[in-house]
Every structure is written in structure tokens, then in C-alpha cells.
């Protein structure tokens, strides 16, 4: 079931916001309160927000949301996962790069790893102060800005068909998972990485702004030590990529 909601306010973003920018939020079960609070900041600044509830098949949900947004004439698609929290200024930072495909990076939940995938040969990544624009291999879909030109080019160059028109919910399978053969074996690419792969095949580079601090919201088992302090945060953080 599609639950489309949006809002507008009087405040303007510090950088010029494209008139045709929309935030797309697929929600499988629950939207985290921290994410909702972030989205409210966008609504207050006049950015439209579209929420797709019941997105248990995340690949199909993304395909439908992208199709509907492009059909409505939106040219800048900001993807936000329902468990990612951010500041409105983080959107400014993505926009100011004026790139077709750019994202923020956040960690996986329950694992000491990044959700996005760096380029082969990358040994480290600087986050926060000292960070900046960096090309990566694949972008996780939790906080990503993609221009309509990427979708149009991918559809044309890869000859993607329009699916499910007979059921009244047509879409192009931009986010269909795929298997990529690598030197060390087959790699199953989930929907966001699969779209990144298709974008690369169509000639687009994928960039990340490593200055952006995102919060990936999940469950955490609090213990005694948490009552006496908070996890240490750093203005600048050097992430060493495991070989």
C-alpha cells in the first residue's frame, strides 16, 4: 500500500533546493522516531517527502517509488531509509556537489563494517573533519541523492523493460538484485548495490561525502558502563579498510 505524504514550510535551505527534489522513504515495518524527526526538518523547509509503507520487498518498493517520482516530474531523488537519521544540512552538502549520484556513508548494524562498499584498493577512509568527496564502488541506499538522468540513461543503455503494467503498477526494474562474477567468485548484489552496478555500467561514477555524520538506528544492549558515560565521538575518524 502506498502512503504518500509531504509538507512545506516557509524556511529556505541555505543552498538553493531544486524545485523538483523529493525524499523517498521505503518503510518495511516501522519508521524510527529519529528518522521521522529528520524528515520533519525537510518538510519544514519545503522539501516534499514520499513514504511507501509495507515495503517488505525492498527492491520492488524502490522500483515503484522511483517510477512514480520520475513520472511526477521529479529530477532529484533523495533516498532515505527508515532507520537512518540525519540533519537537514546534510542534504545541503549532497546538493552542493552538483553530481548525478552522491551519498552519505554509515556503518552496518551489529558489524564493524560500512554499509557502502569502497573502491578496490582503498586502504582507508577519513570521516568528519578532513573528509570530503570520495569515489566509491557501491552506495548503500539509506541516504543517497540520484538524478533522474541516471535512471533515464540506465533504462536506455541497459534496455530495461517496463514490468507489471498489466497489474496497474508499472515500473522499471532498476533495483532488481543481480549476481556479479568477480575474480574471487560470484557476488550477490542486493537492490541498492545492484542499482549502483547498473549505474556504473551506464557510465556514472558514484561518490560519497565523508564529512556527513549519519546515525544508523538499531537495537543496543545497554550495560553498567553505559550509565556512567557515552560512546566517545571524534571530529575526525580514520577508517581502515580490511583487506
Structural write-up:
It is a single chain. The chain is an alpha+beta fold and 243 residues long. The chain is built from 5 helices and 15 strands. The strands form 4 sheets. Strands 1-3-2-4-10-6-13-9-7 form a 9-stranded mixed β-sheet, sandwiched between helices. A two-stranded antiparallel sheet has the order 5-14. The protein has a two-stranded antiparallel ribbon with strand order 8-15. The radius of gyration is 18 Å and the shape is globular. Residues 1-12 have low confidence and may be disordered.
- Helical residues, percent: 10-25%
CATH architecture: Alpha-Beta Complex
Low-confidence runs of at least 5 consecutive residues? 1-12
Beta-strand proportion: 25-35%
Specify Rg, calculated over alpha carbons.
Answer: 18 Å
So what's the overall shape? globular
Number of helices: 5
Question: What gap, in angstroms, lies between the N and C termini?
Answer: 43 Å
Oligomer: single chain
**Lateral arrangement of strands in the main beta sheet:** 1-3-2-4-10-6-13-9-7
Amino acid at each position: 500500500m502506498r502512503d504518500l505524504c509531504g509538507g512545506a514550510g516557509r524556511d529556505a535551505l541555505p543552498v538553493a533546493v531544486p524545485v523538483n527534489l523529493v525524499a523517498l522513504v521505503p518503510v518495511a515495518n516501522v519508521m524510527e522516531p529519529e528518522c521521522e524527526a529528520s524528515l520533519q526538518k525537510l518538510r519544514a523547509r519545503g522539501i516534499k517527502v514520499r513514504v511507501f509503507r509495507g515495503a517488505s520487498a525492498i527492491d520492488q518498493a524502490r522500483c515503484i517509488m522511483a517510477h512514480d517520482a520520475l513520472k511526477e516530474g521529479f529530477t532529484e531523488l533523495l533516498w532515505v531509509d527508515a532507520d537512518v537519521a540525519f540533519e537537514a544540512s546534510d542534504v545541503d552538502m549532497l546538493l552542493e556537489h552538483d553530481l548525478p549520484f552522491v551519498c552519505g556513508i554509515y556503518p552496518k548494524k551489529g558489524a564493524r563494517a560500512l554499509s557502502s562498499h569502497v573502491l578496490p584498493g582503498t586502504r582507508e577512509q577519513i570521516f568528519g573533519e578532513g573528509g570530503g568527496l570520495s569515489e566509491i564502488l557501491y552506495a548503500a541506499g539509506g541516504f543517497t541523492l540520484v538524478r533522474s538522468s541516471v535512471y533515464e540513461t540506465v533504462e536506455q543503455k541497459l534496455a530495461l523493460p517496463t514490468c507489471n503494467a498489466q497489474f496497474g503498477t508499472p515500473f522499471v526494474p532498476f533495483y532488481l538484485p543481480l549476481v556479479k562474477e568477480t575474480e574471487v567468485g560470484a557476488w550477490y548484489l542486493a537492490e541498492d548495490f545492484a542499482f549502483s552496478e547498473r549505474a556504473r555500467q551506464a557510465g556514472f561514477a558514484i561518490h560519497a561525502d565523508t564529512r556527513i555524520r549519519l546515525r544508523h538506528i538499531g537495537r543496543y544492549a545497554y550495560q553498567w558502563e553505559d550509565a556512567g558515560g557515552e560512546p566517545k565521538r571524534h571530529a575526525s575518524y580514520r577508517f581502515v579498510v580490511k583487506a
